[in-house]
Recover the amino acids of this structure.
């Protein structure tokens, strides 16, 4: 059986990139880190690190084990927190990752509802886009991930339980009256995050053209300022416009372009009490 302490050492080495930095993070001596790695290699029968000049780097086997170990340790830490809070919701923490426009609209209300119902429960928030939020969820570093997907988004891997929160229509954002999407085949466009950019390309392809992307930014304030200055058009979801609406832009709903917002939890119900309390607050906030 693999030793969890040694797995933690390997994960720290993979994250920090050196034995010295890993030892500092773990509050170990460097010889102790080297010893743990040597014992882990003996346990696995695989060479996990190799010298690279004056430093070290992980082998392919080392990278694979470090990735799996990060997930395992994350789940162990999350389980420890769940057990600590299982006696009730008078104390403990619950961790939420969400994309910016969710944090700028309904999540503050959900946080307030949660604090009112369970004042001893501490909520930790992380702002990140859906792919990274789901990675954090799988690694046990958050308990709930508020994420979105379009109809053309590739399906997520298994193991997730999704609670539908809302459907969020998309809008064409321009400095003047916009008209139909197909009328802007020759216009400059401003793209957002990777998932939104992929959807923009897909919806424009369905309209018969490939958009000429002049700028890329996932900052909805900056994007709308560029649009207002006449430097291009963009597509934004309704939540983004609720969070911030530039006074000098025009918007028109884009038919057939809706993103679906979910609260994702790892594993099937029943979920830990703190996670269930957060899910209830998210549903009530809408």
């Amino acid at each position: 059986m693999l030793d969890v302490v040694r797995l933690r050492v390997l994960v720290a080495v993979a994250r920090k990139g050196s034995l010295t930095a890993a030892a500092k993070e773990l509050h170990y001596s460097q010889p102790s880190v080297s010893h743990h790695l040597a014992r882990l290699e003996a346990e696995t029968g695989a060479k996990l690190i190799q010298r690279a000049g004056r430093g070290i780097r992980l082998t392919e086997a080392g990278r694979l084990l470090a990735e799996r170990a990060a997930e395992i340790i994350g789940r162990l830490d999350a389980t420890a927190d769940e057990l600590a809070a299982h006696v009730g919701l008078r104390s403990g923490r619950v961790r939420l990752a969400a994309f910016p426009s969710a944090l700028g609209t309904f999540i503050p209300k959900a946080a307030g509802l949660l604090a009112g119902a369970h004042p001893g429960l501490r909520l930790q928030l992380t702002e990140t886009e859906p792919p990274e939020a789901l990675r954090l969820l799988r690694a046990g570093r958050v308990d709930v991930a508020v994420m979105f997907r379009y109809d053309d988004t590739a399906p997520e891997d298994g193991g997730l339980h999704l609670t539908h929160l809302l459907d969020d229509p998309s809008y064409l954002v321009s400095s003047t009256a916009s008209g139909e999407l197909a009328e802007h085949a020759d216009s400059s466009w401003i793209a957002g995050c990777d998932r939104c950019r992929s959807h923009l390309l897909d919806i424009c392809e369905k309209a018969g053209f490939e958009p000429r992307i002049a700028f890329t930014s996932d900052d909805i304030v900056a994007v709308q300022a560029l649009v207002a200055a006449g430097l291009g058009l963009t597509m934004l979801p309704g939540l983004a416009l609720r969070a911030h609406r530039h006074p000098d832009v025009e918007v028109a709903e884009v038919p057939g372009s809706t993103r679906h917002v979910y609260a994702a939890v790892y594993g099937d119900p029943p979920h830990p009490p703190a996670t269930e309390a957060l899910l209830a607050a998210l549903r009530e906030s809408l």
User: Anything to note?
Assistant: The beta strands are 49-52, 55-58, 93-98, 122-127, 144-150, 160-174, 188-191, 212-216, 234-237, 250-266. The mean pLDDT is 89. The first helix runs from residue 4 to 16.
